[in-house]
Amino acid sequence: MQKIxxxxxxxxxxxxxxxxxxxxxxxxxxxxxxxxIVRINRFPEVAVDEHMVGLEGKVSSGEFELAxxxxxxxxxxxxxxxxxxxxxxxxxxxxxxxxYFWSNLSAVPDAEACGWLKDKFGVSWQIIPxxxxxxxxxxxxxxxxxxxxxxxxxxxxxxxxxxxASEG
Length: 168
Fold this sequence. Notes:
This protein has 168 residues and is α/β, with parallel strands linked by helices. Helix content is 31%, strand content 24%. The N and C termini lie far apart (46 Å).
């Protein structure tokens, strides 16, 4: 069992989010482990106090796994919203993988920048190719700077374009 798991607070869409993420990760071109919903517990059908009004039957706690990473999710009402201070990082081995996750997760074009996107539930994701670390961390500072400059102009990361920029 994983000792630490991110917990995601949704207003009312935890179950839909879990189903969506599992379907996206199970359809990925590279799968290391099956993604799945592990369990869903629900709030009672009758609110037992004023804090639970509107959450009747919604997810009080859910557990799901994406590519072997455990997550917790629940519906907590409109008190808190997701923001870019926390994002989920997806490391991709190829442009095909970057393109797949980008096309399946991105739902807010205005939030796209430097490999970051926002999904339809408001969660921020970083869709990052392993090549990015190699290119911006190049031992040649000029190549690294050119790669970084190119990446800063991108929304979705384009590995071939980064390589061209690195080489000058």
